[in-house]
Specification:
alpha+beta, Lrp/AsnC family transcriptional regulator, 2 domains, 6 helices
């Protein structure tokens, strides 16, 4: 169970996990040692899945990104679908994959160095897979917002 302090700590950790317990104590009315203990408990309890570094657009803005909509074959068996999902999970260029409702079954964000790399990846992942009925690629022109954040401090947490 999470209390209001845990939720506030998780909100701050999502924004910047490199902050010290001392700096967090300026915003959350707990001692730095209590903050450190809570953050350790939240990590050990699986409330924080992992900590990553998000690269600056200075390094990533020239890369090719595509949102790929994937429609699975009506006759796709569960084994074929699971194999495709496994390959998506293991492919480094796949930044996220969501199972969605509507005309398409999957939404996949792919990040590649250039168009040649994207074409090779798309042909290997989608075009040659009998599980995939069709796929459509939409290329990112410009990143307007990237902020993976889920507010918890105002939500019911118990």
């Amino acid at each position: 169970m999470l209390d209001q302090f845990d939720a506030a700590l998780l909100d701050l950790a999502q924004r910047d996990d490199s902050r010290t317990a001392d700096s967090i104590a300026a915003e959350i009315p707990l001692s730095p040692s209590a903050i450190a203990r809570r953050l350790r408990r939240l990590r050990e309890g699986g409330w924080i899945a992992r900590t990553i570094a998000i690269l600056s657009p200075k390094l990533t803005s020239s890369r090719l990104r595509a949102c790929v909509l994937v429609q699975l074959s009506e006759h796709a068996d569960q084994r074929g679908k699971q194999e495709l999902l496994r390959r998506l999970h293991e492919t480094e260029e796949v930044q996220f994959a969501y199972e969605i409702s509507g005309t398409y079954d999957l939404l996949v964000l792919v990040d590649c160095a250039n168009m040649d790399e994207f074409v090779a990846l798309a042909e290997g992942l989608f075009a040659s897979d009998a599980t995939v009925r069709r796929y459509e690629s939409n290329f990112v022109k410009r990143e307007l917002k990237f902020a993976p954040f889920v507010r918890l401090s105002d939500a019911a947490t118990s």
